[in-house]
Amino acid sequence: MTGLLELETQLRLVGVALVGMGAFHAVLPRLIGWPADLAPTSLLTRQVAYAHTFFIGLTCVFLGLPPLLLAPDLLGGSTLGTALLAGQTAFWATRLVFELAVFSPRIWRGDRFRTASHIALSVLWTWVTAIFATALLQAL
What is the pTM assigned to this prediction? Predict the structure, then answer.
């Protein structure tokens, strides 16, 4: 159990979670009802929405690969590793702020699935941010 709590292991788990989140974007539009929601919009709006979703998913995968595959290098204290950790910390902290302060509670209140999703994502982004911040502090 101690190994699971080690920072290197946590970084690798964060990497797995981010790669998984990226892959999840392949089914996300259908899961949240985008085909019906976007049907009355213009072709440009639909294509931009789907393209942005694809690139958000791809970004999650690309941001997940360094902690998954290069955790010891990130923790080694190199300038590049430290810069990557700082960037990841800032990026995911900003995502957490959006989850908590930007997305309206009207989106999820009263809907069990969306409330559970909001809670799960709040926990996920808090954990991801905390692991990157802890790794950054250790690397410094």
Answer: 0.90
Q: 19: closest CA among 57, 50, 74? A: 57
Backbone angles phi, psi at 40, to 5 degrees: -80, -5
Scan for tokens 């989106």, then name that residue: 107
Q: Note the pLDDT tens digit of each residue in 84-105.
A: 999 999 999 999 999 999 999 9
Distance CA 35, CA 40 (A): 9
Instruction: Report the distance separating Cα 56 and Cα 31, nearest Å.
Output: 16
CA 76 from chain centre, in angstroms, equals: 23
Q: Kindly state the tokens that stand for 138.
A: 């250790």
The pLDDT score that the predictor gives to residue 21 is 97
Residue 69 in tokens: 């595959």
Asked if 82 and 139 count as a contact pair (C-beta separation under 8 A), the reply is yes
